[in-house]
Amino acid sequence: MNKKILIIGLKGLLGSNLFNYFKIKKLDVCKISFENFIKKKNRNDDKFDIIINCTSNQKFIKNQYQDRNDNDLIIAKKILRSKTKLVMLSTRKVYKAKFNINELDKKKPNCNYSKNKVKSEILVRKILTDRVLILRISNIISHPNKNKRKLHKTFSDIFFEMAKKGFIYKNNKTYKDFISVKKFNQIALELIKKNSFGVFNVSLSKKIYLNQLISWLNFYNPKKIKIISPKKSFNNDSFTLNNKKLMQKVKIKNNTLELKRECLRISKNFFNKK
């Protein structure tokens, strides 16, 4: 593949992982901070075929929507007169939590972050039309020590924080949809190779009960952990994303056994260093 790729976001979970993965694959990839990208003159934007925005900010996450806090919209406006395509990272939280959500299902965001993402998706698609690829990502599983700068905590971050304290919440009825950061990297690359645009759910598309996932992540923990009832505020919304559209496009292996193996690898790596 001879595409030139720019990743905006130096230290976040997905940006740093994508950059390292693309480097291993010997792709022509560069990285830059959002602040430095905005400072660059517009004539430099055509140097890249693809820009992947892996940045956000606390005002966009916590407050009601404002254009000035929308990094994706700011980037879209900056590359409007170029031929560069934008990969925008969105969230499964734009949907109402339920089983088998597809891309055309009605949106029902219930927090400022997800409401802002819905608004941002609409505005960016209006500007770039077929030059934007939007990935609505389910819960990411990754090693908790890979990145210290995170705007969002992943499920695995929360699990390992609690495991160090010696307890976890029981979740015998709650299920969610997950994808490892390793698998996310593979999917993102395949979509880029195929010049994909539009909206794709990025997930395993399987019910993964949280107790099951916890048993994988805790597999190499030498210490016993107490199982306690969750707080009333605990997020127990169950959901899965339908990834049929994605799998028809990329046609790569993506199953529960692979997720289990990745969780066991992360568990071994984390607890063996303690």
What does this protein look like?
- By secondary structure, the protein is α/β, with parallel strands linked by helices.
- Helix 1 crosses helix 7 (181-193) and helix 4 (71-78) packs parallel to helix 5.
- A 6-stranded parallel beta sheet has the order 2-1-3-4-5-10, with helices on both faces.
- The protein contains 10 helices and 12 strands.
- The radius of gyration is 19 Å and the shape is globular.
- It has a single domain (4-271), classed as NAD(P)-binding Rossmann-like Domain (Rossmann fold).
- The longest helix is centred in the middle third of the chain and has 17 residues, at 112-128.
Set out the fold topology.
Layout: E1 4-8, H1 13-24, E2 28-32, H2 34-39, E3 50-53, H3 58-62, H4 71-78, E4 85-91, H5 112-128, E5 132-137, E6 139-141, H6 155-165, E7 167-169, E8 175-176, E9 178-180, H7 181-193, E10 198-202, E11 208-209, H8 210-217, E12 226-228, H9 244-250, H10 256-271
Parallel strand pairs: 1-2, 1-3, 3-4, 4-5, 5-10, 6-9, 7-12
Antiparallel strand pairs: 8-11
Helix pairs in contact: 1-7, 4-5
Radius of gyration: 19 Å
Instruction: Report mean pLDDT, rounded to a whole number.
Output: 91
By CATH, the architecture is named 3-Layer(aba) Sandwich
End-to-end separation in angstroms reads: 41 Å
Give a short synopsis of this structure:
The protein is α/β, with parallel strands linked by helices.
